[in-house]
Amino acid sequence: xxxxxxxxxxxxxxxxxxxSIRGExxxxxxxxxxCPCTRFxxxxxxxxxxxxxxxxxSPAVRxxxxxxxxxxxxxxxxxxxxxxxxxxxxxxxHRRDLPGSPDIVLPKHRAVVFVHGCFWHxxxxxxxxxTPSSNATFWATKFASNMRRDAAxxxxxxxxxxxxxxxxxxxxxxxxxxxxxxxxxxxxxxQTVDQAGxxxxxxxxxxx
Length: 208
Ligand SMILES: [Zn+2]
Description:
With 208 residues, the chain is α/β, with parallel strands linked by helices. It folds into two domains: 14-52, no CATH class; 66-207, Endonuclease, Chain A, CATH 3.40.960.10. Helix content is 42%, strand content 10%. It is built from seven helices and five strands; from the N terminus they run H-H-H-H-E-E-E-H-H-E-H-E. It has helices at residues 14-21, 36-52, 59-68, 75-86, 118-121, 136-159, 179-190, and strands at 92-93, 104-106, 111-116, 163-168, 204-207. The chain has a five-stranded mixed sheet, sandwiched between helices. A hairpin with a 4-residue loop joins strand 2 and strand 3 (111-116). The longest helix is centred in the C-terminal third of the chain and has 24 residues, at 136-159. The chain is globular and about 50 Å long. The site of zinc ion (ZN) has 6 residues, from loops.
């Protein structure tokens, strides 16, 4: 890609060219007045480098993947946080010192809540848990590793005495969970930790 532009009056590359021809020490970048040409050169170089990186998936698949990346502070997660805050719960977010960096951590109740995207975390039986038709092996490996990591994080949290809830993204609307599901979650948060696995199932909740 070639950029045509006019040098501004402040930019005078001539002295630097002369000094390099004479064998004098090369001028430092900072000595030179800022000129758009250097910036343009960098931009075009970056573009070239990017275009040289071959993608392992087709543009359509990449687009579908990117659209599904929500990660932290996704809209459904924010909605649930607002809902919990409104009824008086106070929590920490994405605590990296805990296995799996749970999205919502309620230390007072010794409970954590993960808000899982149905596609990446493979919500069983959910229409959003689709599988792209191309690169079947890549996806199978990716999904298996995600599920393994999730299960391991939950096991480690429970072993550390935390109770773990998973709220699936498809259960969350713009206003968060519907009233019956939200009541279910709040009732679960209010429970106490079942020590020594007296009833291990009560330490876990899945919504829906
Ligand atoms: Zn789902």
